[in-house]
Amino acid sequence: MTLTKNPHTVLGLGLTLAGFMLSSASYLIMRSVPLTALGFSTVILGVTSLALGKGQPSSEASGLLQEPGSENIAKLIEELGLTSKAVYLPSSLTGGKTQALIPLHANPHPPKPQSLLPKRFIVKYGPNPEDIGLLITTPGSTIASKSTSKPTPAPADLEATLSSVLTGTIDLADAVKVSTTGEKIIVEVSNPRLKHKSTQAYESLGSPLASIVASIAAEALDKPIIIDSETHEKHKSIIELKPPQ
Known about the structure:
Layout: H1 7-30, H2 33-55, H3 59-80, E1 87-89, H4 91-94, E2 99-103, E3 122-124, E4 132-136, H5 139-145, H6 155-169, E5 175-181, E6 184-190, H7 200-205, H8 208-221, E7 225-232, E8 236-242
Antiparallel strand pairs: 1-2, 1-7, 2-4, 3-4, 5-6, 6-8, 7-8
Helix pairs in contact: 1-2, 5-8
């Protein structure tokens, strides 16, 4: 038997069981009307939480949905031998959803598009002949486009948006903390539920978790963002973002 990890479902089961036991004991043994009513109320809360749990995708489901797309993107990057860091662009520069731009030619200075890019897979982003890259959809593209709020650049607002998405909408973490140092944005994710693998594709795009964070940050701040670094420990991941220089 596999136990669910959906927090709403676990809470619902606990409340329903506790409420049933309380109401039964209060009515049959203690003959207490107030405690019996409290038990029934607890059961109702439990059933409500179970209903919410069924309507919310679990972290396992979110991971399964993202895995095929991530693998295909990774194979493409590895086959082409791309090593340049991806630049995550907001929808204002792509004309659709947040996407990642990967330069086809190694360049010490990441691209900084200033105008709307064409809706193509291979795009020219600058005046130089080598300013050509791949404009791809990442695991975070759809998630960022579904975010209901677009905060100000304040760390507290970005933290609230990331928390809402990662701990609520897709249930991939327990908590999110955002801080800034100069232009650098530091995102600390507690108990992430996406596995990190060290691959060539991750060197460019970052891990799936970092990709989601960068996509949301680029859309929220309405400016290009790159993943400067990321570290993964036992119970947390630290992702550092910054605008391309």
